[in-house]
Structure formats: structure tokens, C-alpha cells
UniProtKB/TrEMBL annotation:
One of its GO terms (biological process) is mitochondrial respiratory chain complex IV assembly. Belongs to the SCO1/2 family. It holds the Pfam family SCO1-SenC. It comes from the Eukaryota. One of its GO terms (cellular component) is mitochondrion. This is Thioredoxin superfamily protein. InterPro entries: SCO1/SenC (IPR003782), Thioredoxin-like_sf (IPR036249).
Amino acid sequence: MFASFGQGANLDRSTIKGPIIGGPFSLIDTEGRLVTQRNLLGNCVLLYFGYTSSPDVGPSEVQKMVKAINILESKQKLKVLPVFVTVDPQRDTPSQLRAYLREFDPRIKGLTGPVAAVRQMAQEYRVFFKKVEEDGDDYLVETSHNMYLMNPNMEVVRCFGVEYSAEDLSEAILMELKRAGMQKVDAT
């Protein structure tokens, strides 16, 4: 007798593969230098897609990213590189991005670029964003506000949504890195 899915089937989850998230990109950093995924190899990266004129969720997500990285660094001596990719490259020039990110933490690597390059990267990372017209020439950007934990090979390890607090985020990152053998487990 065979068990059907949803009725107690014993499924080996390690053999199930979802859609590939991520891929090559070519953007510009806050100093005007070309950055590709190869430049980030060798780092654990926390990647966030946002925009500098976000009125509320964006700034709180960047603050959460910084706080989580501070927790990991101070309590676990673990370095995670924070990377902010704009989904509003028309307004977020390298200098605009630099000024914005310095308000939060100078360690955040900001990336922008031509609209087509940003759109391609967002598609590769399955990031939703859409321009919403406001009065006059003003607009907001609806976006999914996801963060991605990337391993040193620039492969997505896990995606995090807005429901995580900084403490929960740092704990989840630590658990993922321990599980993947990228962090020594302290036996004390």
C-alpha cells in the first residue's frame, strides 16, 4: 500500500530542489566601481533589496540588518557582509546610496546600476518590485523586502522576510551557518 502526499508519506526533503535563486550580476557600488558576484565570493553575505526613499519598512529593515550583524559579530565573532541593492536605480545614484547607507552603518555595501541590470538581478533573486505613481512626479516602490543569506560561494542559503526581529534574524543566520559547517559551534 502506498501513502499519498499529505497523508503521512515519508518524504526525504533533502532531495527536493526548489527554483534556483540568484545568479550573476554586474552593478555599481557607492564609489562608482563595477561589482559582480565574483567580488563578493569568500564572504557570508546578507543581501537586501530596498530603496533609499522608502518611508518606513525599508529603513527598519536596514536597521534590523545592521543590528543582526552587530549581534553576530559581538557575540559570535562572526563576520557577515551586509549588501544593499536598490530597486530604484533612477533615484538611487552611487552618491545618494552612499549618503543613505552611511546613516546606518559604513560597512553596508550599496549597489545600484542601470535599470536593466537591477531588474535582471531582482528577477534572478525572485524579488518583487513595482513603481507606484504618487502626486506629480513622485512615486513609491512596492517591494518584497526580502533578505538573503548567501554562503561564501554566493549561493542562497536562506531567505528572510520582514517578520524576523534582529535577534531572530541573527539566531537564524547563526543556525544556518552552523548547519552548513561555516561556523564553529562553541561547546561552552
